[in-house]
Every structure is written in C-alpha cells, then in structure tokens.
C-alpha cells in the first residue's frame, strides 16, 4: 500500500502532526499491553502458593503466556491490512483487557492457564504498532521509528517488575489483604488497558492522509475486492522471505521473551541471588529497550541509506550472529561479575537484532505490510514457545535447574547463529532496490514534510 505524507523525521515534540501523535500513542499502548502481559511474573511466588502450582505447571504457564500470541499476531496482521491499525488496536485493547481483569478471579491451575493464554493475545499489540508506524514514516527513518516505538513499548515487560510491586503495596496500604494483592494489581492493569483502547480510537488515525474507511470511499486506497489479488495474507505467506524473518525474529524476540521468563530463576540457582536482586537485574535488562532497540533500527536505516535494502539485511545478519555467540558464552560463565557484563552485552545485541528485523520487514511487500508483520511477529512467540519446551525438557534431564537452563542457553545460542546465517537467502529485485533508493532520496531532501 502506497501512502502519501509520510514523516521523514522522528521529531518527538511535534505532537500536532498525526505521525508523531500516533507514534507516541502506539508506543504507550504497546507499553501498557506488555506491562499487563507479563504483569503476573513478579507475583509468581504468591500465585504458586495461592493456587498450589507444581514446577512443571509453572513452566506450562510460561509456555501458555506466549502461545496464544502466535495466532493473534497472524490474525491481527491480516486484519490491519483490511481494516487499518486504528480499529484493530482499539478492539484488541478493549477485548484484551478482559482476561487481564479475569485472572484476578481464578481459583485453580486450569483457570490460571486459560487466562494466561488469552492474556497472550494482547502481545499481538506489537504487530499493530509496527504496521501503524510503517504507514506513518518514510523509508529513511521507518526502521528507527519502528524500533523506537517497539523498544519503548517493550519497556513494559521490565517496568512491571518494579511497577507491579508498587501497585501491590498501594492496594495493601488501602486495606487489601497481602495474599490478594496480586489479584487487585492485575485487575487495575486490565482497567488501564481498557481505557487506553478508548484513547487510541479518539486520538489516532490510520495514515497521514486519514483512516482506511474514508480513503477507500474516496478511492485513494484500493477496496478489499480491488486489492485482493495484489496484496493478501496468502501473498505474504507465499513469500519465502517472510518465513526467513519469522525464523530470525524467533531467534531474537523469542529469546528475549524466554529470558524475561526464566532469568530470575537462573540467577538465583546459578549465583545464589535473592529473588529481589534477581528481579531488579532482569528489570534493568528489559529497561535497555529505552535505547538498544532504537540503536538497531538506526543502524539498519544507516546501512539502508548507504547500501540499499541489501545493506539492511547485512546488518541484521551480523547482529544476529553476535547475539548467538554472546548467549552461548553467557551459558558457560560461572563468575558472577563477568556474567553480568556478558548479560548486558547480550541484552544490547538481542534488542538491536529486534530493531534491525523491522528495518527489513516494511520492504518485503508494501501491499500487505500487516500480513508480513503478523507472520514475522508470530515468529517471535513461536520461538518463545519452542524455547520454553526446550527449557522444560532440559530441566527434566539435568542434575540441577541451573544446569538445565545453562544447557538450553547454549543450544539456543547455536540456533540464533544459524538464523543469522539464513538471512543471506533474503534477496530483493533490482526494481525493489531502485524504488527504495528513490523514496529514501526523496525523504532525505525533505520532499515529504513531517506534518503533511
């Protein structure tokens, strides 16, 4: 889909422009979704005690938390192409808030797992975020915009480690029993997501030119019937590059999700840290999204400006291979100070790889950006599910929990390196390269104003 009026600069203070206003709102919405998606993690000791969960049931809940998101991302990518990101995000926030609130009322393992699967649907917010920013920003800065909105949204996955205990402390101070604090905290997170859905509907638009409905009526973009042959989910699914990027995103975002879910336990088992100290370190890991993912997007854009679309792919390959080697190295370290240094480097590389992935995605097929984004985004969660299964299997055969996690990290490091090498298969036609170069040059000379 060709959209006019895309912003050529990421001027964060220009709130009057629909591009920047949408950027901020979509980043905040994504933050709230991630905050709620992983909001239960800081409370898992209390949940295990309250519901009587076994260690295997705990691992099952980790897998459940990301499995539902796979299908939701595929579905929402397709719906974004059809109805536009504004309506998709609105309804996802409104409906997705219900299981977040509902988990506050669970009484057994089965109800808990069911709610965690449904809560995973709000993880599909990532796809809508990437589609919306792709529609708002020009080729010279689309990677930076995508990476920054996603990175700042991902902060919710770390901020909840600090924010949820604060919310719990507040509700306890208001007279709620400590044993029920996790329930009230999740309920509050769900209500905030619901309210964010209303904000999204009122203050964003699908493209710089307006919403899909009006643009279709005026003939500025093709109707569903007109565009069906040119850009559809099946078009994206038949493009082998979508599935290579699916694998790539499994090797970066999927691994980051896995680390979020298990690193607390690993630091405690391997290095004898307290849960509070381990949780703080993991939160710091997640908070690197403030700049790390943006850095990956910026580097991808820079390589794209200098070397074209193949330059974007080359940078993605390099950063993925680095990520895999660092994770494999981390798995073998037993000296705590060195482990923290390597963990920081891993955090930087994995988040840069995520940002770099979505400097390539918008150029795979512009007629179905949503569907391509949905497939690639689903890859992240598929990777997390498979990594969770690997962790569960290694935990069964290893002598200790720390050994099982360490073995898993070593295996995953090798898989990530292979994913990096596989990007060499991604190719673009001379026509695609020329078109992207022309659009980039036009944006660089300021031909597209930011407040079009």
UniProtKB/TrEMBL annotation:
Residues 22-431 form the Major facilitator superfamily (MFS) profile domain. InterPro entries: MFS, MFS_dom, MFS_trans_sf, NO3_transporter. The chain crosses the membrane at residues 23-47, 88-105, 111-129, 184-203, 243-263, 269-292, 313-333, 339-361, 368-391, 403-426. Its main location: membrane. The keyword Secreted does not apply. Keywords: Membrane, Nitrate assimilation, Transmembrane, Transmembrane helix. Gene3D superfamilies: MFS general substrate transporter like domains. It holds the Pfam family MFS_1. It comes from the Bacteria. It is found in: Membrane. The keyword Transmembrane helix applies. It is a multi-pass membrane protein. Belongs to the major facilitator superfamily. Nitrate/nitrite porter (TC 2.A.1.8) family. This is MFS transporter. It comes from Lentisphaera profundi.
């Amino acid at each position: 889909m060709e959209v006019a009026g895309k912003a050529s600069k990421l001027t964060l203070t220009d709130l009057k422009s629909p591009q920047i206003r949408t950027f901020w709102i979509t980043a905040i919405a994504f933050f709230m979704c991630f905050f709620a998606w992983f909001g239960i993690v800081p409370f898992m000791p209390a949940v295990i005690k309250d519901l009587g969960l076994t260690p295997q049931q705990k691992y099952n809940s980790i897998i459940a938390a990301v499995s539902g998101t796979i299908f939701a991302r595929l579905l929402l990518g397709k719906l974004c192409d059809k109805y536009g990101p504004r309506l998709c995000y609105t309804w996802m926030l409104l409906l997705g808030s219900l299981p977040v609130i509902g988990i506050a009322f669970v009484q057994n393992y089965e109800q808990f797992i069911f709610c965690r699967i449904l809560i995973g649907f709000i993880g599909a917010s990532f796809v809508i975020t990437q589609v919306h920013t792709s529609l708002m920003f020009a080729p010279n800065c689309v990677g930076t915009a995508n990476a920054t909105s996603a990175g700042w949204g991902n902060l919710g996955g770390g901020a909840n480690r600090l924010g949820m205990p604060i919310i719990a402390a507040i509700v306890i101070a208001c007279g709620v029993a400590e044993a029920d604090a996790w329930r009230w905290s999740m309920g509050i997170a769900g209500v905030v997501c619901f309210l964010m859905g209303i904000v999204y509907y009122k203050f964003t638009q699908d493209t710089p030119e307006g919403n899909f409905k009006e643009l279709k009526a005026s003939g500025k973009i093709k109707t569903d019937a007109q565009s069906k042959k040119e850009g559809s989910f099946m078009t994206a699914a038949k493009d082998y590059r979508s599935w290579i990027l699916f694998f790539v995103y499994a090797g970066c975002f999927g691994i980051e999700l896995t680390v979020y879910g298990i690193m607390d336990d690993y630091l405690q088992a391997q290095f004898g840290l307290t849960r509070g100290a381990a949780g703080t370190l993991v939160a710091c890991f997640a908070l690197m999204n403030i700049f790390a993912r943006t850095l990956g997007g910026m580097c991808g854009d820079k390589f794209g400006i200098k070397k074209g679309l193949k330059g974007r792919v080359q940078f993605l390959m390099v950063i993925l291979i680095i990520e895999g080697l660092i994770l494999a190295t981390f798995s073998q370290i037993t000296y705590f100070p060195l482990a923290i240094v390597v963990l920081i480097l891993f955090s930087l590389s994995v988040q840069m790889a995520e940002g770099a992935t979505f400097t390539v995605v918008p150029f795979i097929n512009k007629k179905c950006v949503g569907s391509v984004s949905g497939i690639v985004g689903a890859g992240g969660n598929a990777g997390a599910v498979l990594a969770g299964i690997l962790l569960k299997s290694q935990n069964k055969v290893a002598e200790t929990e720390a050994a099982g996690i360490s073995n898993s990290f070593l295996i995953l490091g090798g898989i990530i390196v292979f994913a990096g090498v596989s990007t060499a298969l991604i190719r673009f036609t001379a026509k695609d390269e020329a078109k992207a170069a022309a659009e980039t040059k036009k944006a660089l000379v300021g031909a597209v104003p930011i407040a079009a």
